[in-house]
Amino acid sequence: MSQSRALGRSTAATSATKVRGRGGLLPVLLVAPAVVLLALFTIAPAVYAIFLSFRRMKVGRGLLGGGKPTGVFAGFTNYAATLTDSEFWASLARMLLIAAFGVPMTVILAVVFALCLDAKRARLVGFARLAIFLPYAVPGVVASLLWGFMYLPATSPIGGDVVDYFGNRGIFFSVANVVVWGVVGFNMVILYTAVRSLPKELFEAAELDGASELQIALRVKLPMITPAVAMVALFSVIGALQLFNEPTTLKPLANAISSTWVPLMRVYTDAFVNNSIYEGAATSFILITMTVAATVLVNVASRRITRRQSR
Amino acid sequence: MTTMELTRSVAVQDVRSRRQRINWAPTIILLIGALYCVLPVLWIVIASTKSNDELFSTAPFVPAFTGGFWTNLRALFTYNHGIFGRWVLNSVIYAIGGGLLSTAIAGAAGYALGKYRFVGSTVLFRTIVAAVLLPQIMLAIPQFLLLAKFGMTNNYASVLLPQLVSPFAIYLCKIYAEASVPDEIMEAARIDGGSEWRIFRSVGAPLMLPALVTVFLLQFIGIWNNFLLPFVMINNDHLYPLTLGLYGLMIITGGQAAQYSIVIAGVLVSIVPLAILFLSLQRYWKIDLISGGVKL
User: Fold this and answer.
1) What architecture is domain B69-295?
2) What range defines the domain where residue A32 resides?
3) What protein family does this chain belong to (chain B) (predicted)?
């Protein structure tokens, strides 16, 4: 926070004198609201969470007894408490299980739909594009309620009385399905625009060489949209790490979902139900670190793939 | 002349015959995808026409015409002194207010970063790119703790303010400003004696309109769909957005199947207006901004 404040000050000081005539104070004034809000609502909360994560509550034991509880420095005890808690790892494992199914599904389905939209002489293209995009407008909570009724034995139109959608195993598929349903259309549109921006001459050349429609799709179009596919995958991975709305909404319907079912639910439960905000802060910082690590990992992997292809 | 006409008519015929042959494989795949995405919504529309008894007793995809639809809607909007209408209004306030303000903020910042070079602009831009990777939702709880420290939770501002700045939106605006606001026009406007502010208002902002519309719609949907932030910030049900209200309704009625038809009507009401709004605005979006702008 102090760093960004210093940054803002030095910007204001120099631009007024140095860059006058090429914008003057205007650019500084234009970025100012964003900088202030970014400092107040992104950087400050993150720093404050880190600060809290290193503290613990100490109940004062004065001579007269009682006294106000105060926060004192706690070192890494909160981190240790989270990292040694088997339920934390279990919640992480559940999240990864859902992601292991959900992320590939969103990406693969989006790729398939995007390539089908671009296929020659395919029908219903406009209708399908709108229909598949539609769930993106449905809030996650509402999508979960909607699918909740689809899964509930009493109301299910998809055989909820035969299939146990809320069972200990089925629940992972059920949650992943809500996520896939909500995201696949958005990913599809991103990939479709990427396919559309490819030069048409390439496909015509491949066609003249005798390549089939399917071969062109898989061997020419798909490799050329790898960067967009990687980006979509990255969005999906970040989305998986933030899994909260869907399991929270399905919880009243499904006994298999506990209050610490996925990591973010655990942070919420720690902070607001168990009243241990310090441990919650440590857990959320661990999660943020993991998210950034995952992002970097996906980034590096996609760069390597792109480089290998351009060789 | 005649050969040209001949080849043209052959070409037209060729196109016609090609058009008549349907490429079945992709068409069927698309149809299955469309059904997967639309059927649950269609089911909700049909289920909302049924009374609670009919919900459990009639065929799932056959609507009832016994007037259940209006009964359900009336029950929904009169529930708890009409609090549902209040939730709709709150969602509109959060999404339109937050959407407009955050678009203005992102547009201004993106324009400044894209078209001017000032001390710290590179560092600032790098910070914003890094912030894109930081999931906003994970900040909701730290944001609550910080705001609570200053006694600023449980009001409209506590939900609106944290959503006003979106690093991703600033990033998109910067890329777009760089690509579509030409230096030459800005230079010409300067020669004509326009102030930098005037240039931004009458040259920069209009040229950035497609990006601004896209950012507004993305922000609007993002805020409309947000659940965790209001979930932690608000404990007065008069300030709930739709998402939180429906969740609360489900919690209250969760055990009692007798209330399902109210929740189903609520789900329908929260989907349909947004779906119409955003399907009708679909051609004004520039989603290629997202796929073209982000180069990994």
Assistant:
1) Orthogonal Bundle (1.10)
2) 2-53
3) Belongs to the binding-protein-dependent transport system permease family.
